Amino acid sequence: MSSFSKKSYAPFTLYQETSINQNYKEGQMITFYSELFNSSIHGILSKKYTNSCLVDISACQELSRENREKYNYKIVVNYKKIFEDI
Questions:
Q1: C-alpha angle 70/76/80, rounded to 5°?
Q2: Are 44 and 59 within 8 A, CB to CB?
């Protein structure tokens, strides 16, 4: 009978701090360009990932209710698509 040894692995994470994503905070209102809808949209940053973030679009007035429901009120946005405050 063979014995199995337990190997120790580092925990897997989808988030690594970078110079780009450190400028944004969860809960922050952001404006971004959506290629999905071909327009600029407002939303609340829900979760940060290394190169993108999950954005809550449930209160977005630029989209119809049907479009918001279709994507379960959330979409993933690349940080490069977020507009900087002017």
A1: 135
A2: yes
Residue type, 77: V
Residue type, 26: E
Domain segments of the chain as ranges? 21-81
pLDDT digit string (tens) for 10-47?
Answer: 677 778 999 999 999 999 999 999 999 999 999 999 99
Q: Closest Cα partner for 29 from 49, 52, 57?
A: 57
Residues contacting residue 24 through CB under 8 Å, at least 6 positions apart: 30, 45, 48, 53, 79, 82
Please, which residues have CB within 8 angstroms of residue 27's CB and are 6 or more apart in sequence?
44, 45
Query: Measuring CA to CA, which residue among 21, 3, 17, 1 is closest to residue 77?
Result: 21
